[in-house]
Amino acid sequence: MLRIAIQKSGRLSDDSLNLIRECGISFINSSLKLKTESTNFPLEILFLRDDDIPGYVADGVADIGIVGQNVLVEEGMQDLTVEALGFSKCRLSLAVPKGDSYSSVEDLNGKNIATSYPNLLQAYLSERGVQANIHTISGSVEIAPSIGLADAICDIVSSGSTLISNGLREVEQVFKSQAVLIANKELSEEKREILEKLLFRINAVQRAQRAKYILLNAPNDKIAEISKLLPGVKSPTVLPLLEEGWSSLHSVVNEDDFWEIIEKLKASGAQGILVVPIEKMII
Ligand code: ATP
Ligand code: MG
């Protein structure tokens, strides 16, 4: 049985649980329980505070875990990383009161900066030759300037609305983060095999999230042209329509590319284009 540590309640929790479910792993989740076991995969889930996850995985209390890179790198444990997961994207940024003048990071020399990420901030400032006084606080960092605790802050930002509502202006991006899967370095052979199975499923889910199944009708003399636009996994499927001279073409397309090629498809005579989600994709 492999043990995974995920955040009990917070910004990583829902996406972490969804990823496990999308991998076809079922479990009963009670918000009161600190651990649960899957009913159809050799996985036990521990629910922890995100800050504790890297340490527990490094110590082997949990075998693997899901945590933000910001926490992982702050704790100096980035070497546990197995794979980036693409959710909980955010950035660690420096912000100053919006009325303060600011032209470059050198303006922070000698200033007091409040943050929950002293190591990431220190590394950033040292690289730029800036010396500031870092005040480590564990929460509500954004109110530090307004209560006179600091001249600037360094905190997690996603939309920026928290900064704005506290009269702050984002001035530098210190670190970019997303959720990552981490693993203990000394997993037994059995556990490593379960992890491989899990990674295989995670990759299938992630590939499917970007891919779309596309179906369209095309005149037979345009199939070669359209196939070049839609190479798919191997090559498109072409099926005859009942109507003479027409075919239905099926393929897979990356969502990011879809909007680029849609005009070209129409110009090539494609009609009745359907784009549908894919749940899993194994290539
Ligand atoms: P815990 O109680 O588990 O210690 P926390 O309050 O430290 O929780 P959260 O605010 O739930 O942590 O954030 C968890 C992680 O989610 C962060 O470390 C970061 O990687 C990511 N994150 C934080 N804020 C955002 C955001 N606004 N958008 C997306 N991801 C975010
Ligand atoms: Mg935390």
Task: Describe the fold and architecture.
This protein has eight helices and 15 strands. The protein has helices at about 15-20, 55-60, 70-75, 120-125, 160-165, 190-210, 225-230, 255-265; strands at about 1-5, 35, 45-50, 65-70, 80-85, 90-95, 110-115, 135, 150-155, 170-175, 180-185, 210-220, 235-240, 245-255, 270-275. A six-stranded mixed beta sheet has the order 2-3-1-4-11-5, sandwiched between helices. A hairpin with a 5-residue loop joins strand 13 and strand 14 (about 245-255). It is globular. The chain starts with a strand and ends in a 6-residue tail after the last strand. The structure holds adenosine-5'-triphosphate and magnesium ion. Adenosine-5'-triphosphate binds near residues 11, 49, 88 and 177. Its cofactor is Mg(2+). It is found in: Cytoplasm. It comes from Pontibacter populi.
What is the fold's blueprint, element by element?
Layout: E1 2-7, H1 13-22, E2 35-37, E3 43-48, H2 53-59, E4 64-68, H3 69-74, E5 81-84, E6 90-97, E7 112-115, H4 118-127, E8 133-136, E9 152-157, H5 161-165, E10 168-177, E11 179-183, H6 189-210, E12 211-219, H7 223-229, E13 237-240, E14 246-254, H8 255-267, E15 271-277
Bound molecules: adenosine-5'-triphosphate and magnesium ion.
Magnesium ion binds next to loops.
Domain Histidine biosynthesis HisG C-terminal: 208-280
Catalytic activity: 1-(5-phospho-beta-D-ribosyl)-ATP + diphosphate = 5-phospho-alpha-D-ribose 1-diphosphate + ATP
Domain ATP phosphoribosyltransferase catalytic: 49-203
Structure characteristics:
283 residues, alpha/beta, D-Maltodextrin-Binding Protein, domain 2, Alpha-Beta Plaits, 3 domains, six-stranded mixed sheet, five-stranded mixed sheet, 8 helices, 15 strands, 32% strand, globular, binds adenosine-5'-triphosphate, binds magnesium ion, EC 2.4.2.17, amino-acid biosynthesis
